[in-house]
Amino acid sequence: MGKVPEIKLSGHVNAVFPYIELPLDYILPEILKNAVRATIESHSEYESGHLPPIHITIASNERDFIIRISDRGGGIPHHLVGRVLEYNFTTANKENMSDPEQQEGVFSNMMEAVNPNPAGGPMHGFGFGLPTSRAYAEYMGGSLEIQAMQGIGTDVYLRMQHINSQAGSFRI
Predict the structure, then answer these.
(1) Structural domains of the chain, count
(2) Which of 32, 96, 123, 134 has a CA positioned 20 to 30 A from the CA of residue 21?
(3) Residues of the chain falling short of pLDDT 70
């Protein structure tokens, strides 16, 4: 193990904007861990540790800022694209999650599995990360959109309205 894809930043990397900490502190790690997991799982044949990088592009303008996170983790299969933003839907351990006994064990132990120490807790599996991220983004006047290229990778677009934007009202 010990493989991690490189993260490359581009665009308006020196952009400064006011924001509310909690939503971004939840959304960005959620999107990044999905990108990292997809990249590692779809490139398990790379024993040398070389993985395709994850690209983060930042754009900032007078109205909003946009963060695009692009991975080369194989994309989301056609039959799952419409479901990844549903609560309680997960692509993690799909073969185990179809067994009702396995589901019961997973969900009954959910609270035990969640650990305040990120190094010790689960990286995926409960189906709340992306839907909650979208809810945060929309509440803050933005959006979260997913574009999958099956067989290649996934691009996630996070658009957040500037707090001090003159373009519209900002809800807190």
Answers:
(1) 2
(2) 123
(3) 1-2, 46-49, 92-126, 165-172
Domain region containing 25: 7-89+127-161
Tokens, residue 73: 């983790």
Structure confidence at residue 168 (pLDDT): 59
Q: Are strands 143-149 and 153-161 parallel, antiparallel or unpaired?
A: antiparallel
Report the amino acid identity of residue 145.
Answer: E
* b/e 30-51 (16+ beta carbons within 10 angstroms → b): bbbebbbbbbbebbeeeeeeeb
Supply the DSSP symbol for 121: S
Q: What is the DSSP letter of 19?
A: -
- The CA-based dihedral angle spanning residues 35, 143, 8, 87, taken in that order and rounded to the nearest 10 degrees: -10
DSSP state of 53: P
Helix (H, G, I), strand (E, B) or coil at 47: coil
In CATH, what number is assigned to the domain containing residue 142?
3.30.565.10
